[in-house]
Design goal:
Helix content: under 10%
Distance between the termini: 60 Å
Number of domains: 3
Structural class: mainly beta
Oligomer: single chain
Radius of gyration: 26 Å
Number of helices: 3
Length: about 450
């Protein structure tokens, strides 16, 4: 339905100039499309109990003169309780064509309804984000991966979940295409012709076993600054198998029905327990790994989709002209760190980058009194290194750790290092190293310059 709405509001209107459409009647057109959708196993209807909150479309100016464009809207129940939240761009968010639907008749095991939220945003083109939840008989919400439909227009392909009426376990992710069939006039349709929905291909099957949604294979990144515990069961009582470090990349393979709310520094974080798989190399994550690959359950309130993180960091670094023609190098994890690297008590950022030739660079953003950028790997590199693409380990060093060079003319043990060559920092440093060979070092800021301590 949203595809038809968007089509007539994009820059592509000239494609159907010979049709006359009254925008106020588009809702009727959308209802016609809904009947066609049901033939594919969909019975979504406008929810009578769930709504999206409205937002003030005016921008707000902060005390320092900046304009805020992001807003949070909520999925609310009939008692006006906030169930889910969504961050939207005020410039493009269209609350008139964002809506909530649900299916209340489903054969999926232990599921009494399926909720779908469509968030539409239009600028030059109209795009939509479609969110789906399976709601269990115990009122636990299990989220399916979000479907982002870009540049929506009749004639383009788009993705959708299909919930076969006869299935108790299978959910299909399929690709569709819509087109206007000028060979089939339809006087009941505002376009004047049938709008046909054609099946393109099935992308994957997801399996719901009554407690877990399996087959996701979604890439995520850990956002917990102090690491994220891995357990053998989807709850806090499960045995601790290890800890995922900040920035570790994982694959979510199953979404469980078990939800939890955690309070972290006064902020409530909601999420579900998910099953993840990860590489236990080059940094050991799990203590009982039998191979380089391992798996376990984690709380997904501290996970962020990998592509979302890349987009977010890209937007951050694009504010600085020094990063022009550079992009995030996602060949290692983490590739983005936060910490106080300049001893001023303010959280800074360091990013692993690459240029158009594939040469590795390291960018520091010093968010001090005035924001400054330091770029390692250029012609003015303090260590005469112009290409850091040998780096396989990229980690933050904790405040208070003792640093020393473990190699000068030969290897040096900590006990043999003179006190005057040990470095104790009350702020963070960076550790880089080749993943499978000797070579690397600690990089830290002191006396207005970067310093290096060799690590073999």
């Amino acid at each position: 339905m949203i595809l038809v709405y968007s089509y007539f509001r994009t820059r592509h209107k000239e494609k159907i100039k010979h049709y006359t459409i009254n925008m106020k009647n588009l809702l009727f057109l959308g209802m016609i499309i809904c009947f066609q959708i049901s033939s594919f196993g969909q019975d979504f209807k406008k929810s009578k109990t769930l709504t999206l909150s409205k937002i003030n479309r005016e921008t707000i100016e902060t005390p320092d003169g900046e304009e805020l464009y992001l807003r949070t809207i909520y999925l609310k129940d009939s008692n006006y309780r906030n169930l889910k939240e969504f961050t939207v761009n005020l410039d493009s968010y269209d609350d008139e064509y964002s809506y909530v639907e649900e299916i209340t008749e489903t054969q999926l095991k232990n599921i009494h309804k399926i909720v779908k939220v469509t968030i539409e945003h239009c600028a030059c083109d109209c795009n939509s984000d479609n969110y789906y939840w399976l709601v269990t008989n115990e009122n636990e919400w299990v989220e399916l991966p979000t479907l982002e439909q870009g540049d929506i227009d009749i004639g383009n392909t788009y993705q959708e979940y299909i919930f076969p009426k006869e299935s108790i376990a299978t959910i299909e992710l399929v690709e569709f295409r819509e087109r206007i069939n000028e060979n089939k006039p339809n006087k009941n349709n505002l376009v004047g012709f049938d709008i046909e929905r054609t099946y393109e291909k099935k992308l994957k099957d997801l399996t719901w076993n009554g407690s877990e949604l399996q087959g996701l294979q979604e890439k995520y990144v850990v956002t917990a600054q102090n690491g994220l515990l891995v357990r053998n069961e989807p709850n806090v009582r499960g045995n601790k198998n290890g800890k995922l470090y900040f920035g570790a990349q994982v694959t979510v393979v199953a979404q469980t029905k078990f939800s939890q709310t955690i309070t972290d520094n006064g902020k409530e974080i909601e999420g579900n327990w998910v099953k993840v798989e990860f590489e236990n190399f080059p940094i050991q994550i799990s203590n009982n790994a039998t191979s380089n690959k391992d798996s376990g359950y984690v709380f997904d309130g501290y996970l962020e989709r990998k592509q979302d993180q890349i987009d977010r960091i890209t937007n951050e670094i694009l504010q600085f002209e020094e990063f022009e023609n550079l992009r995030i190098n996602d060949s290692i994890a983490p590739n983005y760190l936060k910490g106080d690297f300049f001893n001023d008590g303010i959280e800074d950022v360091v990013v692993f980058l690459e240029d158009n030739e594939g040469e590795g660079k390291i960018g520091f953003i010093d968010y001090g009194e005035t924001s400054k950028v330091h770029l390692l790997g250029n012609k003015n590199d303090p260590f005469n290194i112009t290409n850091y693409n040998w780096v396989g380990i990229f980690q933050k060093v904790n405040k208070g750790d003792v640093l020393w060079s473990n190699y000068e003319d030969d290897f040096v043990n900590y006990d043999d290092v003179p006190e005057n060559k040990k470095v104790r920092l009350e702020y963070n440093a960076l550790f880089i190293h080749a993943s499978e060979s000797c070579g690397g070092g600690f990089i830290y800021w002191k006396n207005e310059t970067f310093n290096w301590l060799q690590q073999e």
